[in-house]
Amino acid sequence: MTDVRGGSDPVRGGVTQRGDAGPGPVLEVEGLTTEFRRGTSRITAVNDVSFAVREGECVGLVGESGSGKSTTALSLIDLLPVGGRIAGGSVRLGGRELVAMPPVELRKVRGNEIGMIFQDPMSALNPTMPIGRQITEPLRLHRAVSRAQARARALELLELVGVPRPSERLGAFPHQLSGGLRQRVMIAIALACEPRVLIADEPTTALDVSIQAQILDLLEDLRAKLSMAILLITHDLGVAATRTDRIMVMYAGRIVERAPTSELFAEFRHPYAEALLEAVPRLDRDRGQELYSIPGQPPDLSMVPSGCAFRDRCRLARKDCAEQVPPLTGGSAGQPLGSRDPGAHQWACLHPVSPASASGAREPASGPVWTAASGGVRTPAAQARQEEILVLEAVSKSFPVATGGLRLRTSRLNAVVDVSLAVRRGETFALVGESGSGKTTLGRMAVALENPTEGRITWDGEDLGELPGRALRSRRRDLQMIYQDPYGSLDPRRTVGASIEEPLAIQRLGSRTERRERVRTLMDEVGLSPRAISAYPHEFSGGQRQRVGLARALSLNPRLIVADEPVSALDVSVQAQILNLMRRLQAHHSLTYVLISHDLSVVRYLADRIGVMYLGKLVELAPVDTLFTQPAHPYTHGLMQVIPRPDTAAPTPRAKILGELPSPISPPSGCRFRTRCPLAQDVCREVEPPLRSFGQGHLAACHFPLATPAEPDDGAGDSGRAGERSVPTR
Amino acid sequence: MTGYLLRRVVQAVFIVIVVTMIVFGLLQLLPGGPAHAVLGSRATPAAVAAFDKANGLDNPVYVQYGIWFSHLVQGNLGYSYNQNQSVISLIGERLPKTLALTITAVILAMVVGVTIGTVQAIRRNRAFDYAATSVGFLFYSFPPFFLALLLIILLAVDTHLLPAQAPQASSVWTVLSDPRALILPVVTLAVGGVAIFSRYMRSSVIDNLLQDYVRTARAKGVGSVRLLVVHVLRNALLPVVTLIGLFLPLLLSGAVVVESVFNYPGMGLLFWNAATSRDYPTELGVTVLAGVLTVVGSLVADILYAVLDPRVKYVSR
Question: How far is B175 from chain A (nearest CA, A)?
């Protein structure tokens, strides 16, 4: 194909309407309604949704799972899964109607004028097609370009989205790239034809925070560079607060509130939107306050309550809320439903939060909504007095991996390297770090599910590695674990009662009736109806399943619970319920928690002390307040900087940690973080920094720390080995 | 890739050696024995002992196996007293014909099965899907000899559309020169495969159509034909390809029946005759070869899988 007419660039030739209009709406959605068939009934996933997106604007669509935000996005270019159909409304792109457009015509819009990126970069790319071909595909479909031109454009795109060494990557397959790189490839595909609108459906949810910031930066840069409109779909109010111009909040298929971002965060009017914000653990909030949690679950769309769908869970609900669906109105002029004035602040509520009470409500401990934490926050001095109950001494764990052409050579993947720390009785010790940092492996070793390859773990004075099988089994009563995935960690063919009872049966505790009684008590304690004892896991929601997991872990009256990402699979409103429950249970049963999480806001809410891990190493350890106010390690600092804060006043977090996580099979020499560190010097390549003390209970391993070491010699003498214990604890 | 291949070949050789041991051991357990087969059932014990001594059959089993195996490695599979021919030359004559039959049947089953399965997946839960499923199960549950006879009655005896007997020529080339006569044996062999392949292909395509990458492709503006051919087919074929390896032994045993019904002078008929006339060296030779072919079949399937799926090369143990 050599029909390059008059020297014009065929790659960019497609969109001609570009630039003739001012900042008018590119995308106009009016009364969009989408239905799914489920058996004989119909459920309305998107209900009468209207909005507009202007050129160059980034609009956030925020909501929990099942709120209809993804379905709204898929409806725009009719990518609905089988059983879904657009039941009404209109979608106009630059004035052209897309709903009921013939499929052949609509295909010319998809990937050409509207690009889309999806949540999970692991599964969204074709696993058996080289990424070069996946990027050139939309060009070959929508533009008359030759193979060579398409290839050149693909290189240009990979460069644009920040993939290093693009020419080497064209022939690579998706599985050869990391998650972050895959998401960049996904963006390159979506941008190939320079669309006017980019729909980003949870583009960073599956990524680590450091990579999340990089991807969001990239989207923002590209939006400015290409003056395209972005519809950013996210469950994360923090992401929406700092990256969007306007926000729409969805609940049960409807938009319940929308406003320019700064206006919205200044005053939330819909009780749901307000509650959603309150349920997020915040970095600027007193940790002693229990999180506000929305009672109940997001509604099942097949049985949405009459009237306002939120009324069952609403603290301001009154009788008339059941009578009619509140229209989207508001703003100074009180525009009617369907107004497409993008600048208006509108809400769909009969009894909105009044601006005054809203600001008042967000002060700590106002009214009966927030109850004081029953656990309370221990003072550092009180913590230090507690005895060390779980002690890790120079613990390492490596796994064999086959490498080399014949797969006959084995290398070691060093998941955890030389970590020494001690967990005190009754505290919450958090392990944070990106995926691949070794935090889960360390947690599994703490409950003797893995044995360390080197080093020693003692629990209450006993070496867990030395215990004979029988003694270890009875010791397991003390050590329990709850898991991230509430769906995968319960046997689907076993009633939840049986799952909770199993540990008791294994340990031969009590008679059958006694055990059943105990199960009922436990279920009641974690907030499940004991009548659900013979229900199966699929009958429960994610949050309820996590409660089952907690009950199961509690059944043996353990003293230590390792919680591996306990809330990361849950919706914000449910997350707050579980976090509060975990706190209450800790106080009630004097539990010691080891909390594993990538989410620093969650960690801050629950933890007393925090260990930061990077590529198997413990790089910093400090009491929670110290860590958040004076981080010493540049990695910790970088992680703090990129936490999306649900606050428009906060500066937009630009990525502070560069590049991707190196391979744990061949980690960088010297300091492992040096390849991504903005402060790295030559010495970092040669000498591995030991853990040094930065004051009471604060350790960090860095040559160029961001804080001043307490005493230069303290803790450095034994290069971090058991260094944490050598720190004076009083 | 080469490393992966090498590893699989080493595994395959090991499996073949184990197969020869098992087959050799099993034949020892059969009543009668070669002496009686050659000398007749009324042979005197003295004559039998003399025969055994002359042929080394009085040695312990592992010594016999050692001798037999060392001959095998040199390409000597023994001598068929019944046919007065070395086993290797018997096999050499007949193997190509059986291969011609089975390979054609595999290709036919694959092409038809994959096509039907794909169409079923696209038209899921519609008339064609249900019809294909029922007909598939019907044919799958037909014993091959019954199906063969049915086909012969319908298409050869009653209507004279096709010959009832397979081509009888001695060389594979002349066999192939009469494709009409091959149709019925090939179809009989392939029918079971069509049912299996279509079943697997149907569920594989349905699985793949639900994958996120399909949505990505649609979001690019890919049309339904291109989506199927360029994106889904390769991914959906991955699990189906491994079936070829599993299908091959089934074909070989099917060949025994089909070749006897159609009187086709291939390995199956050779085995059938050897078994009925207690021709031990030939039985042993054919069985070992069938074992080798089965192992090679699954090896080929794994290699195909590796070629189709770029991820396989990087799988760690």
Answer: 40
**Residue B266's pLDDT band (cuts 50, 70, 90):** confident
The B-side interface with A (CB below 8 A) comprises 2-4, 6-7, 210-213, 215-223, 230-231, 234-235, 238, 308-311, 314, 316-317
Domain B94-314 fold is MetI-like fold (1.10.3720)
Contact B221 A109 (CB under 8 A): yes
* Phi and psi based region of residue B75 (left: phi greater than 0; alpha: psi -120 to 50; beta: remaining): left
Alpha-helix residue ranges (DSSP H) falling in A483-563: 496-506, 512-525, 542-554
Cα–Cα distances in angstroms (integers) from residue A588 to residues A28, A375, A592, in the given order:
54, 8, 11
pLDDT digits (tens, 9 = 90+) for A506-525: 888 889 999 999 999 999 98
Closest Cα of chain A to B110: distance in Å?
A: 21
Nearest to A77 among B219, B222, B230 (CB): B219
So what's the pLDDT on residue A207?
82
Provide the residue type at A113 as one letter. Answer: E
Tell me the nearest-neighbour CA distance from B10 into chain A, angstroms: 11
Q: For residue B316, which residues of chain A lie inside 8 Å, CB to CB?
A: 401-403, 407
Q: What is the pTM of this model?
A: 0.81
Between residues B1 and A167, the one the model is more confident about: A167
Q: What is the pLDDT of residue A424?
A: 94
Partners of A330 in the β-ladder: A335
Contact indicator for A529, A567 with CB cutoff of 8 Å = no
Domain boundaries, chain A: 380-405+412-478+558-643+653-724, 488-557
CATH 1.10.3720.10 region(s) of chain B? 94-314
Nearest CA in chain A to B316: A402
The residue among B149 and A365 whose pLDDT is bigger is B149
Instruction: Please name the member of B213, B220, B316 whose beta carbon is closest to the beta carbon of A138.
Output: B220
Q: State residue A6's pLDDT score.
A: 38
What pLDDT does A488 receive?
85
Instruction: Give me the pLDDT at residue B11, please.
Output: 87
User: Residue B4: its chain A contacts at CB < 8 A?
Assistant: 407
Give residue A8's pLDDT: 42
- Distance from C-alpha of A708 to C-alpha of A706, rounded to nearest angstrom: 7
Predicted confidence at residue A17, as pLDDT, reads 40
Q: Measured between alpha carbons, how far is residue B12 from residues B5, B224, B289, B299, B300 in Å? A: 10, 41, 13, 7, 11
Q: What is the number of residues in chain A?
A: 730
CA–CA separation, A547 and A527 (whole Å) = 7
pLDDT at B199: 92
Q: Which residue has the higher pLDDT, A71 or B31?
A: A71
Q: Under CATH, domain A380-405+412-478+558-643+653-724 is a member of which superfamily?
A: P-loop containing nucleotide triphosphate hydrolases (3.40.50.300)
SS (H, E, C) A461-479: CEECCCCCHHHHHHHCCCE
Percent of chain B with pLDDT over 90: 22
What's the pLDDT score for residue A26? 92
Whether ipTM tops 0.85, in short, is no
**Separation of alpha carbons A433 and A610, rounded Å:** 10
- Pick from A101, A88, A99, A84: nearest CA to A32: A88
| Average confidence (pLDDT) over A282-310 | 81
Which burial class, exposed, middle or buried, applies to A716 when counting CB atoms under 10 A from its CB (0-12, 13-18, 19+)? middle
Average pLDDT score over residue span A344-358: 79
Using alpha carbons, select from A502, A552, A543 the residue that is nearest to residue A522: A552
Residues 6 or more apart whose CB falls under 8 angstroms from that of A414 comprise: A396, A397, A398, A616, A664, A665, A667
| Full DSSP string of B203-216 | HHHHHHHTSHHHHH
Which residue among B219, B309, B310 sits closest to A111, beta carbon to beta carbon? B219
What stretch of H or E contains A274? helix A271-278
